[in-house]
TrEMBL record:
GO biological process: L-tryptophan catabolic process to kynurenine
PROSITE patterns, per the entry: TAT
Source species taxonomy: Bacteria, Bacillati, Actinomycetota, Actinomycetes, Micromonosporales
Protein name: Kynurenine formamidase
Species: Actinoplanes teichomyceticus
A single GO molecular function term of this UniProt record: arylformamidase activity
């Protein structure tokens, strides 16, 4: 479902030309390292359309064509969206009375150092598993301390299921959803001890799917922090040392909203490219 990383790979190769550039392009095609520095640009956003699974049935995005170039001289669509479909932000206002809305989140809060907690192996056996305090402590022993203000992102492997709504939602016969999320203890630990900036997941909700009480939502938004849901491509982000940029649409009064989420790494270098008959120096990811 996530086509972003593939596309950016092609763009990088197109921008770099010859010699050292060609060698760099080959190196960039490798998966991101498990930790530390990474090169290139990862797109953590799922393409959004009517087929993308919604948290509640019937709340999928809807689109229609409003104008066409043959008929009107220009092309335009109209969308019907709730603020919580596709790759999106949960603003503090989503679950906390008086919480900040989308326009009230500051730009500096939307660019964060990121860490990725990998629970994919466990999630493959148990859809109801959650990120625990033990997972976080094990992460820190291996990768180092989570920086204050970080975006703490759960990688469960669920992003690969987004093209199959039933598998992604994991609804049982009673309608209860089953997918991983953050345990409330882990969320509270991260708020208290690491003053995190946000939590992010590659599933439909920061709480596990079988939660009826949304305690992680309440703890996080009650602490004036935001969530990121339906992230894509976390398998290709280094576990430690990445940055996330959250391109949240500033909906007035927004309880959150759709966002293009990017994880830019280091610039891969500078290449030379022929533009309109002149050789130009082009920076490339
Ligand atoms: N934070 C989740 C959960 C959510 O939106 C939600 C939670 C409880 C009841 C309804 C919800 N959203 C839409 O139906 C989301 O943004 O999709």
């Amino acid at each position: 479902m996530c086509t972003g990383p593939g596309r950016t790979g092609v763009t990088r190769r197109a921008l770099l030309s010859g010699g050292a550039g060609a060698a760099a392009a080959v190196a960039l095609a490798e998966p991101a390292q498990a930790a530390g520095r990474h090169r290139g640009l990862r797109d953590l956003t799922h393409p959004l359309g009517p087929a993308f699974p919604a948290f509640s049935p019937g709340e999928e995005a809807a689109r229609g064509t409003v104008t066409t170039i043959p008929d009107d001289g220009y092309y335009m669509q109209q969308w019907r969206l709730i603020e919580h479909v596709g790759t999106h932000v949960d603003a503090p206002a989503h679950f906390t009375p008086g919480g900040r809305t989308s326009t009230e989140l500051r730009p500096s809060e939307l660019i964060r150092p990121a860490v990725v907690i990998d629970i994919a192996e466990r999630a493959a056996r148990d859809a109801d598993t959650v990120v625990t305090v033990r997972d976080i402590q094990a992460f820190e022993r291996r990768h180092g301390r989570i920086p204050d203000g970080a975006a703490v992102l759960m990688y469960s492997g669920w992003g690969a299921k987004a093209g199959d709504p039933d598998a992604y939602r994991g609804a049982d016969a009673a309608g209860t959803l089953h997918f991983p999320g953050f345990g409330t203890d882990a969320c509270e630990w991260l708020l208290r001890h690491r003053a995190i900036g946000c939590l992010g997941v590659d599933t439909l909700s920061i709480d596990p799917g079988d939660s009826a009480t949304f305690d992680t939502h309440r703890a996080l938004t009650g602490a004036d922090r935001y969530g990121l849901e339906n992230l894509a491509g976390l398998d290709r982000v280094p576990r430690h040392g990445a940055t996330v940029f959250v391109g949240l649409i500033p909906y007035e009064g927004g309880s959150g909203g759709q966002a293009r989420v990017l994880a830019p790494g280091e610039w891969s270098g500078v290449g030379r490219r022929l533009v309109s008959g002149r050789v130009r120096v082009v920076a490339a990811w």
